[in-house]
Amino acid sequence: MAGGFVAKWLGYLDKFLFFPRQLKRQLGSGIGLVHICDHSNAMYASHVRRHPAVVTCHDLLAVRGALGEETDCPASATGKYLQRWVVSGLRKATAIVCASPATLRDAQRIVRQTEGLPQILLIHHGINYPYRRQPAEQARQLLSGVEGLDLERPFALHVGSNLRMKNREGVLRIFSLTKDDWDGQLVFAGLKLTPELRSLGQELGVMERVVEVDGPANDLLEALYSSAMVLLYPSRFEGFGWPIIEAQACGCPVICSNREPMSEVGGDAALTSEVDDEPAMARALLQLTDPAERARWSEKSLHNAERFRAEKMIALYIELYRALGAQV
Predict the structure, then answer these.
(1) I want to staple 253 with a disulfide (CB 3.0 to 4.6 A). Which of 95, 156, 247, 297 is the partner?
(2) Cα dihedral 276, 296, 245, 217 sign
(3) Is 60 exceeded by the pLDDT of residue 153?
(4) Pair 57, 99: CB distance under 8 Å
(5) Ranges of each domain in the chain
(6) Pairing, β 210-214 against β 155-160
(7) pLDDT digits 0-9 by tens, 33-58
(8) Which letter does DSSP use for residue 308 in this model?
(9) Does 132 score more than 70 pLDDT?
(10) Across 183-200, average pLDDT
(11) How far apart, in whole angstroms, are the C-alpha atoms of residue 86 and residue 230?
(12) From the candidate CATH numbers 3.40.1170.10, 3.30.460.10, 3.40.50.2000, 3.40.50.2300, the one assigned to the domain spanning 32-126+310-323
């Protein structure tokens, strides 16, 4: 614990004391534009006032939590100070690029423009790994090494962590509602379940059908997406919802909550319900047990994923850089 405390504060020294000095030195070497790739570092915009500064804003959930809004991101006293610093930095940027319409609206409301600055615009994230539908035999070979996974049975998939916003307890409850009508398994990929979640699974009578895959590599994750009957993703809050578009790029149908940005990212290719309407999500899962229905939603998923090609994102960023005077 002591080592973690020291590492944390050494990280703060690097981030807030040493790096700004290094940044100022680099700005003297003919740099035409600065792109801060994560809004949590937006405070650096105050150090580059003589240069155009672009900030990519993935989400403002932590900022909203610090303002007392319900986002499943509560803030400590120190956290509230840090998030005020983030907002102050965003206000000094030349342009804020938001990853989703929901984040765009949050930025417009919280940052507040003065005389048209900062410019606040939308550029969707591009898929940062070339996920695709794996050939069945290749996926089967990769999945054969997953402990507890029965390759002769279908499975539903959840990808993510145990943060409250991910609603893994909801995933377990939805799965339990299908247990009398469907004999598939439930795979959790990402972090392993907490003891509390395992206890809930036991209470619901489904833990013997649950498989955990801790930190899968991209090729294994791609095999999971390609082979799953459905991605079950009832998150309460997200900044973007990467697993939705990753799954769709592999032809995996998605069931998610109808809150933004999940509903916007999934588009009309995702089956959506109110986050608390777990029976509706269970019915959607059972709907996909029909091979024809699953095939229909799979094709819609592949089509929707085309909206998030990395090449499209790159082209839009280059266009922005040039508009701000950078030689690209």
Answers:
(1) 297
(2) positive
(3) yes
(4) yes
(5) 32-126+310-323, 136-307
(6) unpaired
(7) 999 999 999 999 988 878 899 999 99
(8) G
(9) yes
(10) 98
(11) 37
(12) 3.40.50.2000
Sequence letter at residue 184:
G
Q: Which CATH architecture group holds 136-307? A: 3-Layer(aba) Sandwich (3.40)
The partner residues of 210 in beta bridges, in order of sequence, read: 186
Type of residue numbered 73: C
Helix axes 218-227, 242-249, angle to 10 degrees: 70
Q: Is a pLDDT exceeding 80 seen at residue 282?
A: yes
List the structure tokens of 116. 């048209």
Q: Which residue matches tokens 């240069």?
A: 51
**Integer-rounded Cα radius of gyration of the chain:** 22
Angle CA(307)–CA(308)–CA(313) in degrees, nearest 5?
110
**What's the longest Cα–Cα distance across the chain?**
67
Q: What residue type is assigned to position 313 of the chain?
A: M
Flag whether the pTM goes above 0.70.
Answer: yes
What are the structure tokens assigned to 35, written together? 């792109």
Question: Tokens in use for 1?
Answer: 């614990």
Side chain identity at residue 46, one-letter code: S
The pLDDT score that the predictor gives to residue 2 is 57
